[in-house]
Write a structure and sequence with these properties.
The chain has 465 residues and is of the alpha/beta class. The protein is built from 14 helices and 17 strands. 49% of the residues are buried.
Length: 465
């Protein structure tokens, strides 16, 4: 998508050194809303997202009057706004109380564009069992949502596992203490045969179990969306054909629970990241973001609970420049995964003047950059500085949608000195452009104990016994 945006875009005061065309979503949104508030007659669009279990979430945002010379920005602004809601909260039915042409434009987006159809299929059909539906109505259903405690069960002999895009981790845990841990490299994305995934997971569980006198419970985290241990949508299995997915993947973890005969619970890896952060920091209102193969995120409420929200920040728009990097899976532009992951590092490598073989896997590209960084290479430093600026503006964007007191940043991309540079860059952005947020938000990275075992302990703590 290379056409100019009808939405007025704002250049950041701190420019990413390798991406001067970056136009942060937060700045464009704030500028657009300020224009609306300053314009007499600007209508308020009220929205409600409904999930399959009846949960409903309310939001509202102004748009410009139809007669305003910049009213052509309304559909783009609203679609990007709703996309953030879809992938952070989730839902299949979108109620819209506002100008009818905006409801029609949103419907057409999900019906007629490739990124819109991707959102409809992934969020609507695969996660909530219905294609996306836009309902134009002045009567919004009442807001209702449930939260529940997550994990923190440490008694007994437990196995914790984490399934990532480049490795799978497992640990044996006895009364909250790790007695064994292992990290195994694997390549799940392109695999068409689900036996690759099943056998890999079983191998890791079996090795961990060998270090325990018994297994009382198994808890795991994995990239994707899981409801009651059922795989709804997950990038780990995107290479598996639909018919084999239904036969062998959909109920993979339910089958594992039957085989092991103990309580087993698997949740999104972002949720476990947030839980691990909450447990480590002894605090709540935590958003955890893991910069790894993709971008995983999770949220612990101020009350210490989790919600039915998706928190799939890999797909939320963070850059509103229509010429921004395009996500190879969804086909959409400016989404988080291209800014906070190994994919971001791979994309910035040639811009930084670092040549690598085109067929070199992303984890190896990251290792190459980390080695250059350790050697003091200024080109590698520019990559981390760029990601740091991305992160700072995106944190402010996330804070418009989440009640935050703590933000925990972790993952392979943040390892070593590069991670410190990322955090320094993010803090600089917040202090310059968002001083009030900078004053109240605690931005941190895991300590060494949590890096080694925090995720495993948090995952192992998921099932109640």
């Amino acid at each position: 998508m290379n056409t100019p945006s009808p939405l007025p875009l704002v250049a950041p005061r701190l420019t990413p050194v390798l991406d001067p065309a970056f136009r942060p979503a937060v700045l464009a949104n704030h500028a657009f809303r300020e224009l609306c508030y300053a314009t007499p007659g600007s209508p308020l669009v009220r929205l409600a997202l409904e999930q399959a279990d009846g949960s409903v979430f309310h939001f509202a945002t102004p748009v410009l009057p139809a007669a305003h010379p910049q009213a052509g920005a309304n559909p783009v602004y609203l679609e990007r706004f709703v996309k953030f809601l879809l992938w952070s909260r989730g839902g299949w039915r979108i109620y819209l109380d506002g100008p009818k042409p905006l409801a029609e434009a949103l419907t057409a987006h999900y019906r007629d564009t490739a990124p819109g159809r991707f959102d409809s299929n992934m969020v609507g059909e695969r996660m909530f069992d219905h294609p996306l539906e836009v309902v134009h109505s002045r009567d919004l259903p009442a807001e209702q949502a449930t939260t529940k405690p997550l994990g923190r069960h440490l008694q007994g002999c437990r196995i914790g596992f984490d399934l990532g895009g480049s490795d799978r981790k497992t640990a044996a845990v006895v009364d909250g203490q790790v007695v064994f841990s292992e990290e195994t490299v694997w390549d799940p994305y392109p695999q068409k045969d689900p036996r690759y995934h099943v056998e890999g997971i079983m191998d890791s569980l079996t090795k961990a179990a060998a270090h325990l006198p018994r297994v009382d419970a198994i808890g795991g985290s994995a990239a994707g969306v899981y409801v009651h241990n059922q795989v709804k949508a997950a990038s780990l299995f995107r290479g598996v054909p639909p018919d084999l997915f239904e036969q062998h993947v959909r109920n993979l973890f339910r089958d594992l629970q039957q085989q092991w005969g103990v309580p087993l619970e698997v949740v999104n890896d972002g949720e476990v990241t947030a839980l691990a952060g909450s447990m480590s920091l002894n605090a709540n209102a935590v958003l955890g973001i893991a910069l790894g193969t993709s971008t995983a995120a999770g949220y612990v409420t101020p009350e210490g609970n989790i919600t039915s929200w998706l928190n799939e920040l890999a797909f939320v728009p963070v850059d509103l420049n229509p010429a921004a990097a395009t996500d190879e899976w969804s086909g959409d532009y400016g989404c988080g995964v291209q800014y906070f992951s190994q994919q971001a590092v791979g994309r910035l490598l040639p811009v930084a003047g670092i040549a690598t073989p085109p067929d070199l896997p992303l984890p190896k590209k990251l290792e190459h950059v980390q080695a250059l960084m350790k050697a003091g290479d200024y080109r590698a430093r520019k990559i981390y500085e760029t990601i740091g600026v991305y992160l700072g503006y995106s944190i402010a964007h996330f804070a418009d949608f989440y009640d935050l007191e703590h933000l925990l940043v972790l993952g392979r991309v943040t390892s070593g000195q590069g991670g410190e540079i990322i955090l320094e860059g993010a803090r600089a952005v917040l202090e310059v452009d968002f001083p009030l947020l900078a004053a109240r938000l605690k931005l941190s990275t895991p300590d060494e104990k949590m890096k080694r075992h925090g995720q495993a302990i948090a995952a192992a703590s998921l099932p109640a016994v």
